[in-house]
Structures are given as structure tokens and as C-alpha cells.
Design brief:
Elements lengths: L1 H26 L8 E5 L5 H10 L6 H10 L9 E5 L5 H8 L6 E5 L6 H10 L4 H9 L3 H5 L21 E5 L4 H15 L2 H9 L4 H14 L3 H16 L7 H8 L35 H8 L8 E4 L6 E4 L2 H10 L3
Length: 334
């Protein structure tokens, strides 16, 4: 009887071990949460490639990767080159990419402060479907929105403008517009990490409010120090019920890059007009980078209530009172 019990224990352990290793081989993931280019050099063997993948956080353990290659007849069938990989991929997914000789990637740069239409134009110029990309951004499905926690508090009627994190991306040449949008949102999801989200919640703000304010700050000023001051200035205006009066929101309406707008333009009927309406605009007016997002989450308090940009140097000129602001506008020819 004792021998039978021992045998049963051994069988259970063996079965458990089998399913554990199978799970690790087929479903384990690495720790790298951002897309990165992984280079495989000519002459590198299976073991070296597996080790590099583990060190870069793309796979959990090199041994699981090697077992997968051996059991699927893929040893020595890896092609040298550069591949776009991340830790969210399973070992089979990684193996499929690096054993496909025809897989190549297009480098696409989205600049900080760009709007979705500029991103769509860039994609179109690189051979992707920019029109469909823009259609998805403007009309995201409930299924797409539900896949990203970063979008949980986004109003249903608002597009994905603001949530498209500006960065350098590598898209495979057969990428669909939906696949591209998902890759970008994955990046946004990882950049606004748990620490930033905890601070947002602590301040009793929403991610949507932060993204919207950051999109304005991104277009208004460029230096990190000035962004924190402008962010504080704007939050203070909101707290006392003063209109934001941001020309960045008017530039979004008129699709221009003007630092100042006419009196007539400030009266345009639009939910994005922060001269005519108090509070934040209906949605983001650009896609902000991490610097603007952090400046919005961690604003710098000051006695300033007005600012302008020197048209010659780009330097931000702050003032405490409206008469001082008017004087600065005259001084700098605005």
C-alpha cells in the first residue's frame, strides 16, 4: 500500500511538472513592457540568442525557449536581423517572428504635441493606411476601449486624441491600422505607470483630465520648468473659475500654430474654445509626451496668472497681474 501511495505521488508530481513546464513554454512572458528592437547578429547560436532574449526581459527563461525551438524543429532556423519584440509576447510568438525571414519593420516617429491627423499623414507617407488609422482614432469601438485601463474614464463621445503616445515606433510592413493603434495604446498604458496613476487618484483627478490638461501644456510651452509653472497656473485658474484662455485650444480648432489669435477667433462657438468656455475643453488638443504629463501631475505653484512666449527666443514670460501682462505683450510685440 505504501508503495502504491509513493507511486501515485510520483505520478502526480510528474503530471504537475509536465503541465507546469508546458505552461512556462507556451504561456510565460518576459518583464519588458515596452516595444524594443532586438538585434540578432550573424553567427549567434540558439543558446546565445535565448540568453539575450532573457536578459532583455523578452522571455522568462532561456531554457523554455530552447525547449520550444527543439520540439518544433526550429533550432538553427533563426534569421539575423532586427525585430520588434516585447515581454508581452509568448515564446511561440517570439519564435514565429525571429524565424520568419521576410519580417521587416518600418520606423515611424510621432513627435510630441502632434495631433492624430499628423500621425495619420506620417503613417500614410510610410505606406500604412493612415485613413483607416484616423477612422479608428475618431470612432473607437467599445471593444477596443475596453482593452485598455488608461481609457476607463474617457467620455464615450471623445476620440483617442491625446492617448496616442508620441514616440519612435517600429511597425511590421503588414501591420493593420487597428494593430498600430493597439501598439500605441499599449505604450501609453505602460508610460502612465502605477506610480503616476496613484498620484492622479490621490489628487482626486481623472486620467482624462490629466491627459486633456497635458495636451494643452504640451502645445503652450517646451521646457520642463516652464511646463510645471504653466500647469500650476492653469490648475489655479480652474480652481477659481477663471477661463483657461489657452491659444493652444484655438490652434486645435483652426489647425494653426499661432501663439495668439484675434478677438473674433476667441469668440468662435466650439467646445474646445477655452476663451468662451470655462473649465477644460471637451477633450485633448494634442498628444502629449511624458514631460508634459508629469508637469501636469506635478504642477509648480506660483503667484503668476499670465504668461506669453517671446516670438524671437521662445522664452516664456510670466506676469502676476493683467496690466503687467498687457505691458509684456506690448514689449514683445504681441
Amino acid at each position: 500500500m505504501k508503495k502504491i501511495i509513493i507511486l501515485l505521488i510520483i505520478i502526480v508530481i510528474a503530471i504537475g511538472g509536465f503541465f507546469y513546464f508546458r505552461s512556462q513554454i507556451y504561456f510565460s512572458r518576459g518583464i519588458a513592457n515596452q516595444n524594443a528592437i532586438f538585434e540578432i547578429k550573424a553567427g549567434e547560436g540558439n543558446a546565445q540568442i535565448a540568453k539575450n532574449l532573457q536578459e532583455d526581459g523578452i522571455i522568462s527563461r532561456d531554457v523554455y525557449f530552447l525547449i520550444y525551438l527543439k520540439t518544433h524543429n526550429l533550432l538553427n532556423k533563426i534569421y539575423p536581423g532586427e525585430y520588434l519584440l516585447n515581454g508581452d509576447m509568448t515564446i511561440p510568438e517570439v519564435a514565429i517572428v525571429i524565424t520568419n525571414s521576410k519580417k521587416s519593420f518600418e520606423r515611424v516617429l510621432f513627435k510630441e504635441g502632434w495631433v492624430a491627423t499628423q500621425m495619420a499623414d506620417e503613417l500614410q507617407a510610410r505606406g500604412f493606411d493612415g485613413i483607416e488609422f484616423l477612422n479608428i482614432v475618431d470612432n473607437p469601438t467599445n471593444d477596443l476601449v475596453s482593452q485598455f485601463s488608461i481609457l476607463n474614464d474617457k467620455p464615450k463621445e471623445v476620440s483617442l486624441e491625446g492617448y496616442l503616445f508620441p514616440d519612435t515606433y517600429y511597425f511590421s510592413q503588414d501591420s493593420t491600422a487597428l494593430g498600430i493603434v493597439k501598439k500605441i495604446l499599449n505604450n501609453t498604458e505602460s508610460r502612465i505607470d502605477e506610480k503616476l496613476r496613484a498620484e492622479i487618484e490621490k489628487q482626486q483627478k481623472t486620467i482624462f483630465e490629466i491627459i486633456t490638461m497635458a495636451s494643452i501644456v504640451e502645445r503652450e510651452v517646451s521646457s520642463e520648468e516652464d511646463r510645471a509653472l504653466v500647469s500650476g497656473l492653469f490648475w489655479n485658474r480652474l480652481s477659481v473659475g477663471q477661463a483657461l484662455q489657452s491659444d493652444a485650444t484655438l490652434s486645435y480648432i483652426f489647425n494653426d500654430k499661432n501663439d495668439a489669435h484675434s478677438l473674433t477667433q476667441t469668440k468662435i462657438d466650439s467646445p474646445y474654445n477655452t476663451y468662451a468656455n470655462r473649465g477644460l475643453p471637451i477633450g485633448p488638443v494634442s498628444n502629449p509626451g511624458l514631460s508634459a504629463i508629469k508637469a501636469t501631475i506635478y504642477p509648480k505653484d506660483s503667484q503668476y496668472n499670465y504668461f506669453l512666449s517671446d516670438p524671437k527666443t521662445g522664452k516664456t514670460i510670466f506676469s502676476k497681474t493683467f496690466p503687467e501682462h498687457v505691458e509684456n505683450k506690448f514689449k514683445y510685440g504681441l
